[in-house]
Amino acid sequence: MSKSSIEWTTMTWNPTTGCDKVSAGCKFCYAEVLAKRLKAMGQKKYVNEFQLTLHPESLADPFKWRKPQIVFVNSMSDLFHEDIPLSFIQRIFNIMNRLPQHKFQILTKRADILEKHAPMLNWTSNIWMGVSVEDNLVLHRIDHLRQIPAHVKFLSVEPLIGPVNDLNLEGIDWVIVGGESGKTPRPMEKSWVLDIRDQCAAANVPFFFKQWGGTNKKKTGRLLDGRTYDEMPDKVRLNVYFSSLENYRSAFYLEDVF
Fold first, then answer.
1. H helix intervals, the chain
2. Which of 18, 95, 169, 182 is 20 to 30 A from residue 86's alpha carbon, by CA?
3. Which of 131, 65, 74 is closest to 102 using CA atoms?
4. What is the spatial distance between Cα 70 and Cα 84, in angstroms, rounded to a whole number?
5. 105 has which bridge partners?
6. Would you say 70 and 102 are in contact if contact means Cβ atoms under 8 Å apart?
7. 48-96 residue pLDDT tens
8. How many CB atoms lie within 10 A of CB 174?
9. 72 near 105, Cβ under 8 Å?
10. pLDDT, tens digit, for every residue of 175-214?
């Protein structure tokens, strides 16, 4: 677990690491680059670099957080990777179910596997589920997401590498947009971003602009037409504390979780 510099979350939790490329958005995967760096630094968790690895020793990490957090689950992997057993995913969901004070954000490019597994998972209201949509070629992922009984469904349109026209935002609660960063980022056109912003406004869906990206994302910043877009889903807020003493107790009892 670690505090996150990602603008739309506060903490990351990686019970698995590593992945494989499945679409154009994966070409310059930040997690792959970071995994190589962490291995070179001697981080034991990344001894396998970016090869898919399960980390059952990390399952208990969320029980250590005393304050409510917004948690990005598997920032260094994809929870619905085809080689992650359903039983391990269920263990992760069981932990999230037991910690209602935290909001857990999951993001996948494998929306078909997500839909397949969804009926076997407990979708408590603190679990947000999203899919990556980098261009028009992967809009089908949104249709899979729409079938999921998650309380909050969101799109991560990052890296935005092409126009995303005619978004069907029915049943979608939040949209994040961002440009690619790194050594060789693909360009993002302002018109693409404005089009998505306007589609969100028309559908009354919160819009979050994460970054312009580029080789120096701090320099390019986050301003869009002179303002910062930090909109979040109205139906959920970070300042949700324990609703009862029973919830407080369940958060720290570990039996039957693992």
1. 30-40, 86-97, 111-117, 140-146, 190-203, 217-220, 245-252
2. 169
3. 65
4. 24
5. 72, 128
6. yes
7. 999 999 999 999 999 999 899 999 999 999 999 999 999 999 999 999 9
8. 25
9. yes
10. 999 999 999 999 999 999 999 999 999 999 999 999 999 9
